[in-house]
Amino acid sequence: MIVFNVLLIVLLIVCAIAVERTKDLLSALIIFGAYSAIMALLWLLLNAPDIAMTEAAVGAGVTTILFVGVLSKTRRNED
Amino acid sequence: MDDLIVKVISKIIIPFMQVFGIFVIMHGHLSPGGGFAGGSILGASLILLTLAFGLKEAKRKMPHTISKIVETGAILLIVSLGLFGILSGYNFLTNGEAGFHLGRTGEIISAGFIPIATLAIGLKVGSTLITLFHTIIEED
What we know:
The complex is a heterodimer. By secondary structure, chain A is mainly α. Chain A has 3 helices and no strands. Chain A has helices at 2-21, 25-45, 49-71. Chain B is mainly alpha-helical. Chain B has one domain. In chain B, helix 1 (4-26) packs antiparallel against helix 2 and helix 4 runs antiparallel to helix 5 (114-137). The mean pLDDT of chain B is 85. Chains A and B meet through helix 3 of A and helix 2 and helix 5 of B.
């Protein structure tokens, strides 16, 4: 179980760094959705199922869709 | 977007999402979840409807005027539940002493006004999410 926890946290850190490094904003949004999904799994392992439910619905679903809606109004690339 | 597979699959999956959201809202005082989690599931189902069938169809199912009324009515319901405690001589948002039915622990109808307040929070969160999404993707 500890191995699984450490694996999830390493993936979380990799996702957080990749969001900041990616120049293409749509790819950054998809990585951010993966970050939220991993975070929901971690909340579940930390015995907080209500926060996990909220994170899976809001963080991985609605926030990503709202950001895509905003992105369709502006440019796709950074700088 | 005009894809047949997406339309058929979302037509199947949207009722189950809404039933699950209502389940999470109504069991807010008994099990994990509650007003915010269930309301965001309800809002996500309406967002899926908008993505699959387009803005015009979703506006026909959930017009802006109705979501505006639901949003303000839900917060008025919570405030009037709190004022009921003041009117019966106790503090704001008093539950048991103010005369709400407490019931037996573990049943759906119990815990005074907590299920009603959870229902109001769920309606407010769901209608706020769908109003935000429609406002963002609207062509101006």
